[in-house]
Write a structure and sequence with these properties.
Blueprint (H helix, E strand, L loop, with lengths): L34 E6 L2 H4 L5 E2 L2 E2 L4 E5 L4 E4 L9 E3 L3 E2 L10 E7 L2 E3 L19 E3 L3
Parallel strand pairs: 9-10
Antiparallel strand pairs: 1-8, 2-3, 3-7, 4-5, 4-6, 6-8
Amino acid sequence: MALHNNLHVQDGLDKHTVLGDRRWLRTAHGNTDGVNANLVIDDTLKAEGTHREGNWIKSGLPVTFDEKTKTVKMWKKGAGDIYGFLYTDHRVVDFAGEFYETIPVAVLVHGMIYAQWLPVEVTDEDLKNTPLIQNTIL
């Protein structure tokens, strides 16, 4: 179990940029309406895929809200409604190579996005129960 916090930058240990790719975020509208949450690092999130780049998960990752535990988890098609999107990239592996169990994240729950540039496929149908998120198709 990893115990140290991922909210600081340590030079020379990872070449990943903290600012990441935010093309999916159409405007700054709604940015101040985000929420803080704890993201559960489960097997779905640990698996290699377009949502990860090395030890980092990408911004724009859709998440669901678990009412019972008051945490967010990576959204999977058919596994509940999208609650929001991770606002920035987050490191999910500590410097010893172990996955964290949970990490604090900022979640965009209101705003305008380009779903075509999210790290995973999200359609307008997937967003039907997320009324405060508006998708724009180019």
